Amino acid sequence: MTDTEGGAAPGILSELRPFFYPKAVAVVGVSQDSTKFGSRLCRAIQLFGFAGPLYPVSPRGTDFFGLPMYPSIDTVPGPVDLACICVPSPQVTDVIRQCRNKGIPAVVVMTAGFSETATAEGGQLEQELASLAGDGLRIIGPNCFGIYSPGGGVTQLPGATYPQEQGGLALLSQSGGVSVEFCRPSRDFGIRLSQAVSYGNACDISEADLLRYFEADPQTRIIAAYIEGVRQGRDFFYTMRHVTPRKPVILWKGGLTPSGARAAMSHTASLSGSKRIWEALFRQTGAIQVHSLEELLDTASALYHLPPQTDPRVGVVCGGGGISVASSDACHRAGLALASLGPEAHQHLASILAPSGTSAANPVDAGGPYPPAALLRDILMTLGASGDVGSIIIDRIALSARMRQALESAEDEEMEGDHLLTQLPVELQRRWGIPVIVVLREGGDLPPALEWEAERRRLRGYYQQRGIPVYPTAERAMRALGQAIAYFRYRDRAKA
Amino acid sequence: MTDTEGGAAPGILSELRPFFYPKAVAVVGVSQDSTKFGSRLCRAIQLFGFAGPLYPVSPRGTDFFGLPMYPSIDTVPGPVDLACICVPSPQVTDVIRQCRNKGIPAVVVMTAGFSETATAEGGQLEQELASLAGDGLRIIGPNCFGIYSPGGGVTQLPGATYPQEQGGLALLSQSGGVSVEFCRPSRDFGIRLSQAVSYGNACDISEADLLRYFEADPQTRIIAAYIEGVRQGRDFFYTMRHVTPRKPVILWKGGLTPSGARAAMSHTASLSGSKRIWEALFRQTGAIQVHSLEELLDTASALYHLPPQTDPRVGVVCGGGGISVASSDACHRAGLALASLGPEAHQHLASILAPSGTSAANPVDAGGPYPPAALLRDILMTLGASGDVGSIIIDRIALSARMRQALESAEDEEMEGDHLLTQLPVELQRRWGIPVIVVLREGGDLPPALEWEAERRRLRGYYQQRGIPVYPTAERAMRALGQAIAYFRYRDRAKA
Predict the structure, then answer these.
(1) Is B100 exposed, middle or buried (0-12, 13-18, 19+ CB in 10 A)?
(2) Looking at CA atoms only, how far is residue A349 from chain B in angstroms?
(3) How far apart are CA A476 and CA A291, in angstroms?
(4) What is the model's pLDDT at position B416?
(5) Between chains, do A184 and B158 touch, taking CB under 8 Å as contact?
(6) Complex ipTM value
(7) Distance between CA atoms of B330 and B334, rounded to whole angstroms?
(8) Model's pTM, two decimal places?
(9) pLDDT per position as a tens digit, A428-457
(10) pLDDT-wise least confident of A193-197, A368-372, B20-24, B429-433
(11) Taking the CB of residue A447, how many other CB atoms lie within 10 A of it?
(12) Of A195, A466, B136, B216, which has the fewest Cβ atoms less than 10 A away?
């Protein structure tokens, strides 16, 4: 097999650029009813703060939240390079013909009611739609939620409050809902997106096109995808195989079970394909397989924040024997190796830890979740310096005085030196250049509940901004780290 | 095989009662240093509000937060029925002899430094300890965090702020840390405990003894357990097999992987046993197997809140096609069956849903996460009345006006009728008597973040108080429901 079919397409960046960095946007099908897709999308783009002209198009009405409305696309006064179409499905092809007349290069069709209905009429409408694409006009959709591109000032439905900052992760999602369900919590994972594309039925621009675009896009470092089915399997396969050694692609394939496959058929008319074919694809292309939205976000977070690492030996620091057993089991189940510490590190740890209720073997059990900062620093630096570990997980250690107070209901906890304590994981990662992960428990249970939650989020953001991903459980941390290390090992082999 | 070995022990309730409902408690080994175990435990019991006399015992000091201190257990003026021992390990046996002289029937040894150290000295100390038990004096521990029993007014370390109310779930945990890690978040799952016992090295009172006690205890409906290893495997096996048809036992066995087994050895000196033996135990006893703290809590929550159900056919209501695919996959993976709706229900749903962007097949896709209350009610009642489903999962539907506003950034959302919307899942469960589960996303991402979180917790508590468990993802909801239904099917077979 050669790699040429999946090779980079040099023209794709400029061809798809108007979707992501439009100069002027028209939303066709804005309704008087503010709950309809067209109105909601137009309002979302307006609230998001799109800098160029935004043209609401509708045969009825003259004003949309202060913007003049136009009865049809050809009455829009200035040039338009991105049109988002939300009119009922039988009218879509007419509007696209008008778009072509106006020279609009990028069209997103949000409207549903095409092949996913599994009716002859829907199928035919989609074929007509597809036949209008090409020759300077490209189509994303139909049956989708549109595009979020913070660098270009545009957002999808209902993304008025999505982050304004651009980041390094691109999402392609066949499902609009999954796109929203990813973009919203991605903030909690410290992830910022370069783009998110809900591409629906993919009548023209395919998953493979989007993979090629994201591979070429200099903003994008990591690609996450939710896919129910692909139409051009061969192109998809070769493109995926070409992209993964260059940028990691995390792929959540929906509909791998019989029940899921039936649901996918009625959702995006996708032939889900057999589980076996997809397993072969994952094996042969290096795409990173995940099974849920949670795992997609967890894995994305590891790849987003961590430095590359191929060494599977993990060091764990925790405060409790049962916790160390659980971490060890999770480490094994994630395909990682619990590091064996050499005699030097082991002896030093044994000399600084209390003689009972602790463990100087890995996982290093400090005896409780709030070891003094000086002790914690000594443990962490000993592991970092040992050469015995490729990465370190700090599992449910309280990393600020406020957390310590809440956990212990302490009445006289020292708030001094709080910063020294909190920054220890950062110091560890900077000094030894290895991946560090922090596990902060969701302590909603701890009174006063929302204060703990606020403190947890403060610490989470602090670490994420410094290249340290944060998870609520050791199991999720290990699973994500295992995925990241397996990817970097694949990449090294594929490049060799 | 007969069931006699694992049979109920009629005397166990009265024998162990002083551990859980003591009249007077002594904490031996209270130190001037407030960070030591003894002081922390004594302070926790005091703050928790133990109603009877509480005696801090220490050779040094005269006052402990207003309580008079006593130099030794035999100088304590009144009778004592529970002694918690926190002195260094070489002194423990002497203190227990004093307890025996004073006629104390229940002793918890918190101190570590026994067989878990894997030293000859530690092993011998534990043997001596064990030899002192019996004949009117029973021992829990050593190497543990003690007992939380809200009905008896006592708490474990560091449980000053654990809930005061008694509930129906009993926890036995070989690990003190895991006991804390369970008790704290259990509040978030709407679970209240009858008792929690951290039992450590189990030199006298064993896991099987605790199982027998909880089986006999009228407060306890459900038993959750974290176990690293058992010493009397035969007794444990038969007791477990006897208990599970009467009360569900959810068992998280730590140390099933090679790495975990090594950690368990240094934690509680447990021989973890082979994975194969434990798998046979789960198969043959009906104990419910879970693999993490999260799964232990999730499964406990399902059994705690849901009415019994053996019908595996699940109906799902959601608002999005991708979400419906994910729910379907999760349903299949949890060993459940996605219900097929009969023509009557299907036709009615098709007649009330929008013609495109929805699905009248199961999962029922309302087209978005905020269907009008009347539409949602019609969908739910149609499923309930159909006879086609054994339980219903409401997946990420916004169930209050506040949630709808946050999701949609709506500017003009109606707050009227909010109560009617919120109570729909309760109406569904009450009317049809089938399990209903609500999935509420963790929307920490949604600004203003903590307001969403507060609203999510308000709704979560509302549902949990009404017999509806709440999970953050469909995957976790399905997994927990699958465990519950598999248990009730086992129970019916075992009883038959």
Answers:
(1) middle
(2) 15
(3) 13
(4) 54
(5) no
(6) 0.94
(7) 6
(8) 0.95
(9) 999 999 999 999 988 655 555 688 888 899
(10) A368-372
(11) 14
(12) B136
Query: Which of the residues B192, B318, B325 would you substitute to probe the A interface, choosing the one with the greatest number of A C-beta atoms within 10 Å?
Result: B325
At a CB cut-off of 8 Å and minimum separation 6, what does A437 contact?
Answer: A302, A306, A391, A392, A393, A394, A468, A469, A470, A471, A477, A480, A481
Nearest chain B residue to A292 by CA: give it.
Answer: B326
**CA distance linking residue A115 with residue A94, whole number of Å:** 18
Which two three-digit tokens encode residue B98? 């004093």
Q: Which of B89, B294, B326 sits opposite A254 (nearest CB)?
A: B326
Q: Name the CA radius of gyration of chain B, rounded.
A: 26
Residue B332 has pLDDT above 80, yes or no: yes
Q: Mean per-residue pLDDT for A360-368? A: 94
User: Measured between CA atoms, how close is A386 to chain B, in angstroms?
Assistant: 20
Q: Is the pLDDT of residue B341 over 90?
A: yes
Q: How far apart are the first and last CA of chain A?
A: 17
- Test the B interface: residue of A325, A341, A413, A464 with most B CBs within 10 Å: A325
- Please report residues of A whose CB lies closer than 8 A to that of B263: 321, 324-325, 327-328, 359, 361, 363
Residue A123 has pLDDT above 50, yes or no: yes
**Cβ neighbour number for residue A1 with a 10 Å cutoff:** 9
Give A363 or A265, the one with higher predicted confidence: A363
What tokens does B191 get?
A: 């679970």
- E strand or H helix at A104: none
Q: How many residues does chain B have?
A: 496
pLDDT band of residue B7 (cuts 50, 70, 90) is low
Answer for the pair A55, A76: CB distance below 8 angstroms, yes or no: yes
| Distance separating alpha carbons of residues A131 and A93, to the nearest angstrom | 10
Angstroms from B494 CA to nearest CA on chain A: 30
Strand partners, B173: B198, B226
Nearest CA to CA, how far is B454 from chain A (Å)?
Answer: 7
Chain B hits for A369, Cβ within 8 Å: 177
pLDDT band at B450 (very low <50, low <70, confident <90, very high): confident
Q: Which residue of A has its CA nearest to B455?
A: A450
Contact B178 A226 (CB under 8 A): no
Asked, as a colleague might, if the bond just before B59 is cis with ω within 30 of 0, I would say no
Cβ contact, residue pair B444, A454, below 8 Å: no
pLDDT tens-digit profile of A377-409? Answer: 999 999 999 999 999 999 999 999 888 877 765
Q: Which residues of B touch A158 (CB under 8 A)?
A: 407-409
pLDDT at B3: 39
- How high is the mean pLDDT of chain B? 92
Which residue in this structure is represented by tokens 């006999």? B216
Record: contact B446-A184, CB cut-off 8 A = yes
- The per-residue pLDDT for A268 is 72
Instruction: Quote the CA–CA distance of A321 and A436 in Å, as a whole number.
Output: 21
- For the stretch B343-391, pLDDT in tens is 999 999 999 999 888 999 999 999 989 899 999 999 999 999 999 999 9
Alpha-carbon gap: B205 to the closest alpha carbon of chain A (Å): 19
CB contact under 8 A, B255 and A328: yes
Quote the CA–CA distance of A75 and B481 in Å, as a whole number.
56
List of chain B residues whose C-beta atoms are within 8 Å of the C-beta of residue A356? 89, 112-113, 116-117
Under 8 Å between Cβ of A305 and A487: no
| % residues pLDDT > 90 (chain B) | 79
Calculate mean pLDDT across residues A303-309.
Answer: 97
Of A285-289, A354-358, B137-141, the one with minimum mean pLDDT is A354-358
Contacts A330 to B, Cβ<8 Å:
292
Q: Rounded to whole angstroms, how far apart are CA atoms A459 and A471?
A: 12
The nearest CA of chain B is from the CA of A472 a distance in Å of: 10
Residues in B touching A255 (Cβ below 8 Å)? 325, 328-329
